[in-house]
Amino acid sequence: xxxxxxxxxxxxxxxxxxxxxxxxxxxxxxxxxxxxxxxxxxxxxxxxxxxxxxxxxxxxxxxxxxxxxxxxxxxxxxxxxxxxxxxxxxxxxxxxxxxxxxxxxxxxxxxxxxxxxxxxxxxxxxxxxxxxxxxxxxxxxxxxxxxxxxxxxxxxxx
Length: 158
What we know:
alpha+beta; 37% strand; elongated
């Protein structure tokens, strides 16, 4: 009988130690998983609240001027615009100018009707794209991708 009590006590102790080890192994994983879901939710919220629209495109020689309005409910930090992508496509080629690149093709922006560090709802930026030598195609497609994947496109002709 004493042997059975000692065996049962050892099994209970081993079970408690195994349960504690299991909890210590699983709990950090569950916590990390919840952080991942929170991060994805914040990213999706940012994308849902962000929206932009092209107001006007004006080609002038080797330069193209594009006015883009923030029509979403989120304010976009101007410091994030350096991570945006600009594409101009035609039937004979495409350009992906670099932000404030030293040589053409390049692009930069100015905040037209606002001030501060953010591109607020209702404000417009003027994107200036300098191309080295665009072909004499009639129709071009301009696409502007924000840092978070939200994009807008429009066509224009020369």
